[in-house]
Fold AAA+ ATPase domain-containing protein.
Amino acid sequence: SEPKKMTGGVLLECPSGCGATALAYETARYVTSIDPSIKFINVSCTSLVHKEVGGSEKALHQLFVAVRQAAPCILLLESIETIAAVRGHDNTTEGTMDRVLSTLLVELDGVESQGGSMAPFAVIGTTHNRNWVDPALQRPGRLGAVLSLGLPDTSTRKAIIH
């Protein structure tokens, strides 16, 4: 059958504890209930940051190798601002974080299957503030759709508790 086209992704923005990760998990659960062949990969972006020069870029590349092999899949990148902060604010002496962002952009633009066509693949990134995430990541084809979740109002909080 035809592979499902899932390229691109969404950026979930919300204050800490308001459910971005839970929403991502529920989305993945729903999608995999419709098509059990779709896998879900969850990564905390802090786990991709390494102190040795080039280590973070290598870890990110290895992640995308695994994603290509696992396709079709949904990749959740939690706290994506850790590896995709706005360029020009990199306080590392080697410019590590700007290089990591460049690696991420290249990987997102080049996720191809063995046959050279785009692999069935979607990314969900979470952040507490979309302004912390480089604008290049927030364009169509990458994480172009932004969903902002706010704090629940009083009636919603009561419903959650009960």
